[in-house]
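Changelog note: in this version the structure field was regenerated for every chain. One regenerated record is shown below for reference.
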Amino acid sequence: MKFSFFMMPVHHPSESPHLAFQRDISFIHLADELGYDEFFIGEHHSGGWETMPAAELALSMAAAKAHRIRLGTSVVDLPFHHPFHVAERMAFLDHLTGGRAILGVGPSNLVTDKQLFALPQDRLYPMMAESIDIIVRLLESPEPFDYDGEFWKFENMRLQLRSYQQPRLPLAIASSSGSDAVLELAGKYDMHLWSTVGKNRPAGHAENWSRLEAAAARHGKTPSRDDWRLATCMYIAETREKAWEDVEQGIMREAEYFSAIGLMPAYESYAGQPFAEFTARSCADRRDWLIGTPDDAIAWIEQKQKESGGFGGLMLTTHEWADTNLLRNSMEMFARYVMPHFRGHNATYQDEWRRIKEARDSGGVTLNVTGRPNNLASY
């Protein structure tokens, strides 16, 4: 199983942007050191909280020291850009990272960004679909081509630098509701699928995967569960009580922002629930976040694997719910105790310890005067 991070990022407007960006980059370096597989950064241009306008620049800076982890966008808002620029910049990033780039795309989910660019909601998905078609053709075609679309028109265009990965770098798309439009695009273009969890989602993950398979089949494709990520938030500490103590205030601080930009329906226990009724625990419950211990995280993932029929990776959304050192400790605890459980790296160690204890309890292990095992017959 793959383990990834999705960073918007979210920073309180009162703090230094420079220091916040440096801290964001340091989290990528830490994730690389701890053995996480992927790290994705989002793009935003307004609102005051989600602060990175060009994810590929931050990823390029991170790649100077993060030498193993895959790096991607989450997401490039395609209606805001000419598709040639998106394809060219990501192909360039793919070369700078030695073939570790992933292009995550979307239509834009931030209300203030859509207002900034004066784009009506009904144009966003058609623009995204047309842009994806152009980007895929640019990444795959060695020859120039013409394009006469609804939103973009050009002649004799190609990338002079195609991606390091061949036939092209992978594309990914996020879906919070399992919309037909997103699943159709994911199936048609062999895109990785990112599914957001939450108790207010209209369809189950198993159902959405079946719909993706059907969409892909219409285009002669077969999606791989290895390319499917479930996205949620997790904060890990030594005890559940400690975990909640660390993050309760931070969750509510950020909830105020998400309420202001109109995203509270995902947090509601009933339609139209006022913000005054929300608590950190009610938010976590409706969003299906995990605040607890490594064992709690393992149980949560195993349950989602069972419910979904199997997915290839978990994407953890970063939030500044707690002090930086506490957030880093949560990342490390997850890497130390949760990731090995699903990768099998410590399975033999655990079995060895189980057998030793069984032998000890049955009297099969005795110690000589040197303190070394004297009889391992039952072992």
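Spot check on this record: The chain has one domain: 2-352. The longest strand covers residues 2-7.
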